[in-house]
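Late entry, evening session. Most of the bench is empty. Finally got around to the prediction I had been postponing all week. Sequence below, unchanged from the version circulated by S.P.
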Amino acid sequence: MESSKKEGGIVQLVVVLGLITLFCALLLGVINGMTADKIVQNNIDKRNTAMEEIIPGAAFEDLNTIVPAPDKDTPEISGVYKATIDGDAVGYCLEVKPKGFGGALTLIVGIRADGTVAGAKVTAHGETPGLGAKSQDAEWIAQYVGQPADGSIAVNKDGGSINAITGATITSRAVTKGVNTAASYVAMLG
């Protein structure tokens, strides 16, 4: 008698927990459906704001280009945007996704028509607060401005001129790899 009572109690618990889990899953699905478009729009707004900061006064034409990562060491290019001012091409902005310590970073890189880096900005990351997250600091990322866009930029630990973030060399190398990938792609465009 007592054993069947325990079994009935366990079955009841399983059913209640299953119903709670089902309810929570449905609630999460509904909330995701309601917020998905807003999240996408926020990411587009962040990208556009970053491009305007990197090449001020430019109009950007989406070239509808996505370049998948050819291997695990090369970042994906998830967008290419031609920058023009008064109809003259002044450069490109690219959205690049290098892999940092905490996962993929989303990086906007501007390359000027004269073959130099106009700037870069990290728009999303999963890096450690206080370490890799410093890749968003304007003062640190300003090191890339004016660098030659020939794919040769490196952090100082690798013989280059970019001062790596203390304690976040992997993130520093990821941002540098993203800038170099963007520069190499723009060089192929001509």
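Two things to note before I forget:
The two ends are 83 Å apart (CA to CA).
Residues 62 and 124 are 20 Å apart (CA to CA).
Will write this up properly tomorrow.
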